[in-house]
Structures are given as structure tokens and as C-alpha cells.
Amino acid sequence: MASGGGSSDAELQRGFKTLAVTRPDPAAAVYEVRLNRPAQRNALSPEAFAEIPRAMSLLDRLPAARAVVLSASGPHFCAGIELGGPGNPLAAPLARGADPAAAAEGLRRAILDMQAALTAVELCRKPVIAAVHGACVGGGVDLVAACDIRYCSKDATFVLKEVDMAIVADLGALQRLPGIVGYGNVADLALTGRRITALEAKEIGLVSRVFDSKQELDAGVAKIAKEISEKSAWAVMGTKAVLLRSRDITVEQGLEHVATWNAGMMKSNDLMEAIKAFVEKRKPVFSKL
Ligand SMILES: CC/C=C\C=C\CC(=O)SCCNC(=O)CCNC(=O)[C@H](O)C(C)(C)COP(=O)(O)OP(=O)(O)OC[C@H]1O[C@@H](n2cnc3c(N)ncnc32)[C@H](O)[C@@H]1OP(=O)(O)O
Questions:
Q1: Residue 205, phi-psi category: left (phi > 0), alpha (psi -120 to 50), beta (remainder)
Q2: Euclidean distance between CA atoms 63 and 51, whole angstroms
Q3: Cα separation of 277 and 271, whole Å?
């Protein structure tokens, strides 16, 4: 991949109000996107919905980013959509009440835009690892459902609260979670609106690992992200692309897709290097993006 669009660390730091986008360890090709409105418990405002896709798109194009960690500042991961006042992303379309059709179309557009903001996590070709601590509510669950890997600390809780807000969850949880935790578990969470602990989240497969504390979560996730970032970027991005595509098509179509993918990508220098390193009994050094 060419340096692609000229994204730089300076550009990444600049201009984000609801997120902190950083490269915590200069020796690792790992970037962190941190939800950064701790006083509001990282509730998702219209600004956050604008910044999340911008950050994901920048990291997608940034050669130095080979894995992304999605974390949060403060006592909780995310309090869901910002409720109340003009900060509610649906406030403006809801206020366009004079013509019900205009209000409905405005709401539909606003919901589609918010969905697209979270889908940007999936569209980022680099793997995105969610590191969840404290409460993860409503839209926060939609957000982590769009990540590739989910880890949490023991204090984490998860709740699909929309049913108790008298709405249908509409930002991806109902579409993405069945493939992650199974239909029955999503139906249980979405219809009851009950809060589950980290241990139950692990039991149903919502998270794949639980760390004892936030500190251990941060250290553990940084280590895993670094390990992923040191693998062949073509293999890592290809695995994400093939997994996501295979989720939405038949097994037969998925096998066809991966055959075509590998027919092109097996010409990579990284494969030759992996074989050479195996023969020479050393760690492979893969190409930069
Ligand atoms: C029209 C759109 C309709 C529905 C959309 C649904 C999608 C969803 O996301 S549903 C889920 C909505 N979210 C919630 O119901 C969560 C509400 N928050 C909480 O349950 C708690 O705040 C907490 C996350 C468990 C954290 O508890 P605690 O640490 O005790 O903090 P608090 O004192 O409750 O809050 C501190 C501060 O943050 C403000 N805040 C919290 N959540 C939100 C939010 N979602 N939107 C806006 N603001 C929020 C809270 O009001 C406090 O503000 P102060 O100014 O300090 O009072």
C-alpha cells in the first residue's frame, strides 16, 4: 500500500474532540482510538458519530497502523447514544415535526448516517480490537459489535437497553451479534434489556477474553495488538476481509472468494519470507505497508 493520502500522526492528533487518536508505543505499529468524553461517560454525540468514521478512515490509509485498539477514558466504556438536549443525534430530525414525511425521512437519514459511522469500524481494513471496561450500554454495544475482537476487564457490563427506551436497537447489534453470540443470546439480551457481567459476556462469546483489571486489559490488549501488527499485513487484512465477506454469503461463495483472493495475494513477498524464515529457523521480517 502506498503511503495513501498523506495521513500523519500529527493529522491524527489534530481535530478530534470526542476521541484521542494516538500511537502509544512508537515501537509498535498499533494505534489507539480512545472514546474521550469521560464526564459524559463517552455518550455518543453527533460529533462522535462524525469523528469515529474519520478516525477509522485515516487509520485505514495510514501505513504505520497495522492494528487498532478501541478503548475509552474514565470509569466506563460508553453510555450509548447521547440522550437529552441538542446533543441527542436524533433531536434535530425529531424536531422536524410539521410534515410527518419530512420528519420520517430526516430520522431515516440520521439513523443511516449513524449506522455508517459504526460500519466504518468494519470498513477499516486493519483489525480493530475493542478493550471494554465498566459499562457498555446501547450504542456502545453496537460499536463493539462492529469490532473484530472484543476483550474486557472483569468490571465490564453490557446491556442492550434500547427496548427499555421504547425503541428497536438500530445501529448494528441486531444484525452483527447473531453471528457472534448466536440468535438466542441476542434475542435474550435485546428483548429483556438485562445487563450482563463480563463473565456472562465471555460465556456467550461476546468477548473472547476477560482480564482481571483495566490495567491488565490495557497491557494485555497492547501486547496482542503488537503481535498482530508484526504479522504479514497482507495476511491480516486479507483474513479480516475474507471473514467479513464470508459472513454475508454462502459457504460456496466464500470459498470461491478466498480462492480468488489468495490467487492474487499468494504472490506476496511475505509468503516467500515466511517460508525462508521457517527453513532458516528464524523469525520472519515482513514487508512494510
Ligand atoms: C432518541 C434516541 C433514543 C434512544 C437511543 C438508544 C440507543 C442507546 O444507546 S440506548 C442507551 C442509552 N443510554 C443509557 O441509558 C445510559 C445512561 N447512563 C447510565 O446508565 C450511567 O450514566 C452509566 C453509563 C452506567 C454511568 O453511571 P455513573 O458513573 O454513575 O455516571 P452518571 O452519574 O450516571 O453520569 C455521569 C454524567 O454523564 C451523563 N450521561 C450518562 N449517560 C449519558 C447519555 N447516554 N447521554 C447523555 N449524558 C449521559 C449523566 O447525565 C451525567 O451528567 P451530569 O451532567 O454529570 O449529571
A1: left
A2: 20
A3: 10
Sheet holding 157-159, edge to edge: 135-137, 157-159, 196-197
* Ligand 1 atom, smallest distance to 94 CA: 1
- Ligand 1 atom closest to the Cα of residue 83 is 46
Q: Pick the atom of ligand 1 nearest to 82's CA.
A: 46
In angstroms, the CA 190 to CA 18 distance is: 27
Maximal C-alpha separation, the chain: 73
Assess whether 170 carries a catalytic annotation. Answer: yes
pTM: 0.94
Residue 106 CA to ligand 1 center (angstroms) comes to: 24
What is the CA(108)–ligand 1 centre distance, in A?
24
Distance 86 CA to ligand 1 centre (A): 15
Pairing state between β 157-159 and 30-35: unpaired
ipTM over 0.95: yes
Q: Is 60 a catalytic residue?
A: no
CB 286 within 8 A of CB 273: yes
What's the average model confidence in pLDDT over 220-237?
97
- Bridge partner list, 136: 78, 158
pLDDT tens across 38-78, in order? 999 999 999 999 999 999 999 999 999 999 999 999 999 99
139 labelled catalytic:
yes
Task: Compute the mean pLDDT over every residue in the chain, rounded to the nearest whole number.
Answer: 94
